[in-house]
Amino acid sequence: MERDEFLSKLGIGVLALCTGCMASCGGKSSDPSPSGGGGGTPAPPSGSGTVFTADLNSEIKTIGASKSSNGVILVRIGADNVATSFTAVQIACTHEGTNINYSASDGKFICPLHGSQFSQAGAVLNGPAVVALKKYTVTISGTTLSVVA
Ligand code: FES
């Protein structure tokens, strides 16, 4: 094999390898979504009916304790086992969809990505988010708490 022929074949091989790599890697490097959710704000759970339940004998027994499921975060904000001792809101931040956390010491929800803050009722306290969190109804029957859409 001549030197020119060898280099020519080598070039074609490298080009084919790079093309394959770029095709398989290109999607991730161009994804602007910080949460990996495909961009945009995911819709909060909708529809009607029970989103999830909690057993008050064994779950979320202390103020500030939380449980999340099916896109909703439930937090105990009062001591008594009555509906007003709890708040339930969509867990996805309305800015770009990152899951929010509840800060018991601050008494509000805080997004860890860009710092938006929401009241216990889901209202925007600080941006960049401008849309309130969807709030869910809490009902209690016996020791079973239900989060209802
Ligand atoms: S995703 Fe930006 S503040 Fe929550």
Automatic annotation (TrEMBL):
Positions of the UniProt region annotated as Disordered: 29-51
InterPro entries per the UniProt record, alphabetical: Rieske_2Fe-2S (IPR017941), Rieske_2Fe-2S_sf (IPR036922)
A single GO molecular-function term is: metal ion binding
Family matches, as SUPFAM superfamilies: ISP domain
PROSITE patterns noted in UniProt:
RIESKE (PS51296)
Residue ranges constituting the Rieske domain according to the UniProt record: 60-147
Query: Which keywords label this protein?
Result: 2Fe-2S, Iron, Iron-sulfur, Metal-binding
Q: Does the keyword Iron-sulfur apply?
A: yes
Q: Which Pfam families match?
A: Rieske
- What's the protein name? Cytochrome b6-f complex iron-sulfur subunit
